[in-house]
Protein 1
Amino acid sequence: MTLEIPHSDYYRFAQKFSVEDQAMLAQLRTFLNDRVAPRVNDLWAKEEFPYDLVQPLADMGLFGLPFKDSKHYHGDAFFRGWVSFEIAKVDASLATFLGVQAELSTGSIALCGSSEQVREWIPRLTDGSTIASCGITEPGSGSDTARGMQTTAKREGDSWVLNGQKRWIGNATWADICVIWARDVEDNQVKGFIVPTDTPGFTATKIVNKQSLRIVQNADIVLDNVRVSDDLKLANGNSFADLSRVLKGTRTQNGWFAAGVQAGAFELALDYAREREQFGKPIASYQMIQDLLVKSLGNLTASLSMMARLAELTNAGERVDEQAALAKAYTSSRARETVSWCRELFGGNGIDLGYGIARFFGDAEAVHTYEGTREMNTLIVGRDITGIGAFQ
Ligand SMILES: Cc1cc2nc3c(=O)[nH]c(=O)nc-3n(C[C@H](O)[C@H](O)[C@H](O)COP(=O)(O)OP(=O)(O)OC[C@H]3O[C@@H](n4cnc5c(N)ncnc54)[C@H](O)[C@@H]3O)c2cc1C
């Protein structure tokens, strides 16, 4: 089976995939079109997560793609990124769920766990039987977590006691575990812990009335003398530098989300422009409407081109943090522009959720903010090219 190439893939990137990979992407597209697209606006309106879709996504092997220890490992970063792109094209919330489950949470354990921890946790996280979340951000520290993280970890004999608060933690209302990053009171270093969410003292409260990624279940977390045994401390998660190794992957994935959001908005806008008539003709026949569409396609294609090169660097083992930061900052800024042009093309219907475009418009905001805002990622690149840190 070969994959149909839509206008949103204008440079025909998907043509590069093997027949087997194209077949898997075609299966994923069918799943997204049949099981996700028809419900997504309703779920967004109700702030509900489609829990019934988790196991089918896991059964397609999607949770295990990035991990060498998973039977679903896929060695091509471009393919892994394209999977995120396809999901975000239909629903950025579902893509975010997958990002939190796989890249951020399982990624923390895969990159910072001991070989025993990897052996114990990766199989159950990748087969979908364990759902994960990851707590880094706090009410008082988002952009400056490296310096400002207040949640503490105190070693007491064979266990650790965690105290503090986390904010915005995706999946945390229903996850089985939360990877908590906390500051060791002994050496002041940020360290990672696998916390089962039924541990006494752990509470997660859903954040309601979000206007972006409403399907993702984000939580405020309180850790009140949460005690975990030492074997739940990530053996190699002992500093902010260790956490940064995880964030390099998640920032890259967010670039793919930003491209996906643009593709979803563009496809909706193109269909609408062909169907909607004003002054007796489809609005697609007007030059200014074509300008909105082509500008959007240009942004989207530039974003995909950037992500394709980043994937090549990843495959070669040459990708550095700053390259991931530039991709995140650039593609998420383009996403904001693109969804705004596409929404504009819908006129009044552009703010009616039933037409779908308003959802992309809202979702682009959180994609622009999480995993480091545009400003933070810009400062990371700025420090690299000037040699001068301008964070404060
Ligand atoms: C939907 C959603 C899901 C999320 N999921 C998770 C999750 O699963 N786990 C998790 O740990 N976190 C998660 N986050 C948190 C996210 O990573 C933070 O929101 C983000 O890092 C920004 O932090 P903040 O919101 O505290 O903003 P702040 O850090 O308060 O920033 C506010 C503004 O100030 C700017 N700013 C700050 N410092 C500077 C500076 N030095 N120079 C210039 N400008 C500056 C920022 O760019 C921003 O525009 C999520 C957030 C959202 C919205």
Note: The chain has a mean pLDDT of 97.
Protein 2
Amino acid sequence: MAGYKATQTITLWKQHQCVACASHYRYLFTRSLTGQGGTAEKAQEALTQTIQKALESDVDFQPCPNCGTYQPDMTAQRERSRLFWHFLLTPIVGTILIIMGAAGGVRPDTMVWVTTAFAALMAAWLYLLESRNPNADLRANQNTAQKAINAGKLVLDQAQAGYEPGRTNHGGISPTVLGALALAVIVMPAAKLIRGLGGWPLNPTLHFPVIGPGDTSRLEMESGFQSVKGIWTGDASVQVANPKDLPPGDSRFAASTNKGSWGGTIRVKSSEKNSSRTPYVDITAPNNPALAGKTIELKTKVVATYPKMLGSGYTDSRSTFERAVTVKLAPPGAGATYKTIWGTTLSVGILIITVVGILTWRAVGARSRNTQTRLIPTEQPAASAPPPNLPPAPPAQA
Ligand SMILES: [Zn+2]
């Protein structure tokens, strides 16, 4: 967007009438605000709106010096800004972790724990955020207020004797929400649990690590090559090295790999001239149930052809990669089941925690009530003319 910016720092007193004791108190309210727009006028207009909004609804987190209560608009604003980060982080980091586990590079069975631990952390964050009542210790809040008064940032304008604690509207966390959070975290390692219960063997070198008759799983080679734009095409093969150990029936494994194409001119950015690639073989086990539980020695091979930089142009290059691997087969279809459960439970767990975060954000908004506020310019003498009924110190509250 075109760059016109208008900035202004506002400083004034914001006076609240306490919802619990009806005392009036004020604090120094300072904001550096910015407006942006295509023209200087539009930037100024945007700035004016931003200032208007800040004056109307933005508040600081300052307790009533008289009774120690944080006002409902203050607690709601602080809770909502923290919930916003929760809402932002949960789906973004969660999705990245799931993609990392699904795409390779990191073992999916390791990513189950990493993603579950992350989800547990976000669930705990939400729980702590919602269960903590900022008005639980009014005496401590009064002390906080006294420090702000001593620093000249807070003023008790008019103290009232009454106190009604029920009006501060702290929501807390419901058993349903707590149950949903716990459930989300508990279901996430389901793939590992079901693998353990089924006794499905783990093949850490394969991606995904569970393979049964009829399943396909990926084996990466131990080294790679650099090609223009990462383009390559390959021919893959797989051979069973211990056929005499296998039961009768089909024992032919199938292999496939990447098929790329290029020709003539390849347009590249300089950063793409030498892109690293690791060739792989997608191994499909024969659909023969008798192979379940068998240990099979496989010899795999990929012949990769790819464009390689040569001077200012490229030449087609060819490399051969071989890797031997021992595979222990699970029951038919176990690999596909593991993959489905892995993806579903991790996604559902992250989704539940995200949704609970959004619903909580909405609930906080719904129970937020604006305190009666009044704006007072700083030029106006603040503490110099206290009302006559101001007590010498904030009275102790039960
Ligand atoms: Zn109060």
Note: The pocket of zinc ion is lined by residues 18, 20-21, 23, 64, 66-67, 69 (CB under 6 Å).
